[in-house]
Each structure stands twice: as structure tokens, then as C-alpha cells.
Amino acid sequence: MFAMFQKPKIFKLRALHSEKKFGLAGRSCEEVLRKGCRLFKLPEAGCRLCLYEDGTELTGDYFPSIPDNSELVLLTAGQSWQGYASDIGRFLAVFHKPHAGVIQAARQLLSGEQAPLRQKLLADLLHTVSENIAAESRAEDQQWFEGLESRFRSKSSYLRYSCGSRIRSYLREVSSYASEVDAETREEYMRILSHMGQKLKSMQYHGSYFDRGAQADGCLCTPEGWFSCQGPFDMDDCLSKHSINPYSNRESRILFSTWNLDHIIEKKRTVVPALARAIREQDGREVDWEYFYDLLFTSENLKLVHIACHKKTTHHLSCDPSRVYRPKASLKLRRPAQKHR
Q1: How many CB atoms lie within 10 A of CB 84?
Q2: Quick one: pLDDT at residue 331?
Q3: Residue 166 has pLDDT above 50, yes or no
Q4: Which of 80, 232, 256, 267 gives 263 a disulfide partner, CB atoms 3.0 to 4.6 angstroms apart?
Q5: What pLDDT does residue 165 have?
Q6: How would residue 92 be classed by pLDDT, with cut points 50, 70 and 90?
Q7: Cβ–Cβ under 8 Å, residues 205 and 168
Q8: Helix 183-202 vs helix 155-176: crossing angle, to nearest 10
Q9: What is the percentage of the chain residues whose pLDDT exceeds 90?
Q10: What is the C-alpha to C-alpha distance for residues 50 and 46, in angstroms, rounded to an integer?
Q11: Quick check: pTM over 0.85?
């Protein structure tokens, strides 16, 4: 009876799968539920109310403590609501499978929007939902190939070339260091460099790192083409969770060129000088050039990082001295033959 003399509470109410939102008032949970079911033309049996914010179910005992203008969600039997997390999930579903109506609505909003922040949010939304990730050939996504040479007929072929170009540039840097190597060791330095070049050629300059069609252990992305930042050289992960899909659209392809393959043990400051020093000091030992190859050209020492995670400070890391030279083959001692009596 006390509820009948209370001042009515005002709420904003919506149903789970409805875009409509109604304002209504009620003195009890039962009254609000009854009015809500009437507005959304739902049977009262099995229906319940919960807070939009965190999904807490509204009961008679809880009703007096709910403030005015709280937002409620009306649920039917079998439905659930986890608060903001549920709305975010629905929002992400729009990005995963964008509807033409969403794109059109966003474009209309953007055309009349003046606030810079809202402009950016709408532009980012359009950028994301307009992606054509599944397309691979030039015929399927001509806009993606705008500005590229006609010899690139697929997205994967261009990105393989892009990765290979980066690796080739590392080889050129190693080659240019030959002028700083003393004359006595230069011949051996060039011989090792030749071995590296031959191996790189056989590995197609590790272009598979950027090829989403490559085997999982040979590429740095998902089968859909998503790359995740591996974090700065001195961290195990990227705290900002940077990610990008250069296969999605032309802008992402261009932005991906700003991501770096960063050497954990630095190429110029450490690895190349260490190689030259190992040759100079080998003293009859055989330099393990494949160890240096891995440090210079492979993911053993390369991390793919967003430009904001590319720290250009000195890394203060060195090569493993136990791997600079090949281990000497152990001599097997022959056991003397036993005399037969």
C-alpha cells in the first residue's frame, strides 16, 4: 500500500532489440513493467526489467533506491543484458558485418557535422565499415591498388614485395659496411655476405611475413590479414594493442608502411659490427654466419611495431658470444679392438 502513495519515479525504457526508447513513470516495479509491456506490445508473463548500465535486475525491494531518469531495459523470457558490455558487443557486430543502412546513416551525419571530435569518430566508423578485407585481386578491389604498378595483380603479391623490399634494404646496409672492414678480413666478410644473399634469395627475402596466404609459421598476420603490434624491443607485448589490416583498404595499406620491423639487437650498432669483429678474431674458428643471418633478417630478432612503439634509443643488447662461432666437431675416440682368444 505504501507504494501507492509514493511519488512516481521517471524512467527511460527500451526493449532489447528495439531502437525505440520511451519515457514513463511508475510507483512500483510492477507498474513500470506493466506499462512497458503495453508500450512494446509484449506479454507480461516472463518479462523483467534491468538497469541498462550494469544489467542489475530490478525488483520490488531494489525499486525505491533507483534514481529518477535511470535507463531500463525490458527483457522477455530467455533474454539477457550485461550492461554496457552488451551494447559494445552490438556495436562491434556492426563493424564485423556492416549494413548498408549504417554506412548511409554515418555518411549523412558526417556531411552535416561540425564538431571535430564527432567528425573524427564518424570518419573512423566509415573508414572501418567500408573495408573490403576479403577481396584479394585487383579486379575485386581496384581502389586498393590505386597508385601501385600494374604488375601487382593481388594484395598478397604487393605485400610480399613490400616486406621483401625492407629485407633487401637490410642486406644493402650490411653490404655497405664492407668499406669499414679492414682489408685482411674484407674477403671473408664478402664471402659470408654472399652466403646470406643466396639464402635470402632462396627464402624469397622472407616476403611471406606480410602474406596472409602463407603458412601460419611463416607470416606475421592472421589469415584475414590482421597484424598486431608486438610491442617495443624491451617489452613482451604492446600495451596500446595497436593493430592494422593493410588488406582492408588503400588508406590502411599506406599507413602500414609506417610500421617498422625493429631489430631487438640493433642492426647497425651491434649485429653488423659484431659480425665484422668475429671474422677479424676468428683465429681458425668458423663464424656461424647463419646466426648473424637470423639476427639481421628473420623474426628471431625482428619485431613488427607500430610507429609509436618504435623506440629509437640505444637498446644496450649484445649478440650471444656462445653462438658467434660454430662449435667444433667433437672427435670420437676409437676404442681399441679387443683381441679374441
Answers
A1: 12
A2: 41
A3: yes
A4: 267
A5: 98
A6: low
A7: yes
A8: 170
A9: 65
A10: 13
A11: no
Which grid cell sits at 145? 591498388
- In 3D, which of 94, 100, 138 has the Cα closest to residue 253? 138
Q: Which residues are CB-contacts of 109 (< 8 A; sequence separation ≥ 6)?
A: 122
DSSP per-residue codes, 102-136: HHHHHHHHHHH---HHHHHHHHHHHHHHT--TT--
Q: Is 207 helix (H, G, I), strand (E, B) or coil?
A: helix
Block residue for cell numbers 526489467: 49
| Phi-psi label, residue 312: left if phi above 0, alpha if psi -120 to 50, beta otherwise | alpha
Mean pLDDT of the chain: 88
**Which 3 state secondary structure label does DSSP give 240?**
coil
Coil, strand or helix at 74: strand
DSSP string, 45-68: TT-EEEETTT-PBP-TTTGGGSPT
Q: Given this model, what pLDDT does residue 1 score?
A: 43
The residue to which cell 685482411 is assigned: 184
CB 13 within 8 A of CB 58: no
